[in-house]
User: Fold this.
Amino acid sequence: MAPPTPASSSTLPPGPSYPAWWQLVRFAGDPLVLLDECHRRYGDKFTLRIAGNGRFVMLSNPQVVREVFQGDPDVLHSGEANSLFTATVGRHSVLVLDGAPHMRQRRVLVPPLKGERMRLFFDAMRLETLETVRAWPIGTPFPTLPSMRRVTLRVILRSGLGLATGPELDRFERKMETFLSNGRQRYALVLMTIVPIERLTGSRWVPLFRQLRDLDDDLFAFIAARRKGQHTVAGPNVLDDLLGAQHEDGTPLGDREVRDALITILIAGHETTALALSWALADIAQHPEVVNRLGEELAQVTGGGPPSAEHLPALEYLDGAIRESLRLHPVAPFVVRKTMQPFSVDDREYPAGVVLCPCSYLVHQREELYPAPGRFRPERFLERKFGPHEWFPFGGGNRICLGMPFALYEMKVLIATLLSQVRPTRPAGACSHARRYGIVLGPDDGGRIIVQPLRSHD
Ligand code: HEM
Assistant:
């Protein structure tokens, strides 16, 4: 396909007129303040000009979002807009592909991350959570984010690679954590814009790529050993699914494809879920009436015992609390679709080369959908159902997050297990604001809570 021609600014919705570099700094530093400010001033569609990144049209009318999600994937490319990540996730990653190659990689990754298959990861999730909660201080405020990172990383490593607890899991955990910590700086986006990442790819002078190469060496050795059946597998895992999968023409996945798929789920599935969990725990702890109701629901469903996989579907109020926290605090406040050809929506033709951004953060604040939108009210999700263009913390359409069932399940297992052990509250005066951790958002105080023990079942 021919490269998109640059968009003519006169055809785009209005937006801030100050310099693009300052829009980049604000967008990187405090994106929600910028989004709120522009929404107040310009309404449901506005254009940000982000230096080095292009024109981003933020869309917050649910009907328009629906049309974008249903738009032709050959016209609206997400992989193209995500190309920044190719240096780390690789060129076969579902994140950076479009069209038929994208659908091919998606088909391979969907089965292991949903339905019955995913429920086999319950034990790993529960045991890692119990291990973590045992180490929490009693009666003293602490941020949950570091421990949520640890649990979600270990869970995704166990589910992804089929590792048992032990030195090998610990080694992968250390290497992943070292590698990922590079990308968590608040102004990572500014750095990536000033120093184009593709120019540095593979450089051993850049810690990120040195660590990635080290991790890759281990991953390729691991894949080779698994192909030869030289490795003991601790449980069901995504790697075995990938090694057993075939493309439609019957060819198996090559080592590079397997590596790119694995690194994608390890990266995409870990920090996002950890941040969402620390928001959810902070939101729950902030509301004693919610903690009480969750406690009552747990006791009623489990009969006072530890929650098991069979109990989870009946924990409906907990499900509402998780969805409500993701509504208030989407870790990715918008998603990206780059127009490859002119695209018409909302009585306007957008030229090629513009990034259309369905903005969950702004849609989730709409009074007509969510009365008193600033309030944390899990009941909303019991009172009515929201459409995929009204609640979309996981994006939508043909690019909807592949890990959504996995993440919602994991959040439920972790929070139910935690609440069966401790009662959380918030420290007096605690108030978390969103801040950037790399490209995603999380609580600036790491989601500080205080816990008191309930009883131990294990
Ligand atoms: C609370 C946790 C998570 C949140 C909030 C989240 C959010 C998102 C969002 C907003 C997108 C972009 C969707 C779009 O463009 O429409 C996405 C894509 C993706 N996510 Fe997640 N995610 C989470 C957890 C996970 C997990 C656990 C995995 C894997 C195990 C995962 C794997 C992916 C992949 C592979 C994609 C790319 C899909 C594609 O381009 O076709 N995510 N996620």
The chain has one domain: 9-453.
